[in-house]
Amino acid sequence: MGYTSYQIADKLGVARSTVEEDRARLIRSAPQNIESARNIRLGNLENLKRVAYEALQRQSDRSLNVSGLIGQIKGIEEAQARLDGSLTNRADVEVTLKNGDLDLDAEIERRLRERMEGMAGKPRLVVESSNGVAKFSPGRTEAS
Known about the structure:
Blueprint: H1 5-12, H2 16-57, H3 65-84, H4 90-96, H5 104-118, E1 126-130, E2 133-137
Antiparallel strand pairs: 1-2
């Protein structure tokens, strides 16, 4: 498994209490470190999504790249949803249901509706096409 406090203290030439204090400090700081790493990852994903949207805006609606870029954006948004806890999938819902007590499809719809209500005002992908040129607007919200 690992070294004991005594073994670590002996190897480092410090008191056992120093090792135990450091270990306790690391354990206390772990949640902040995890949250910080999550926020960094979400920021990186947001930057990737911005770049993909910019590339998407440069494409005509007949470009073969459009579907690939939309797929990349979808993947990025799913990764963001996994990190922020807003992703609901069929397997998650099935695990929480007991012996078919509830209609699975209805439960998925209910959960998605709840999540969408919680996301009101957040940016959505808006696609407009005029004169054969697609315009993709990531900055619009449901409220605007």
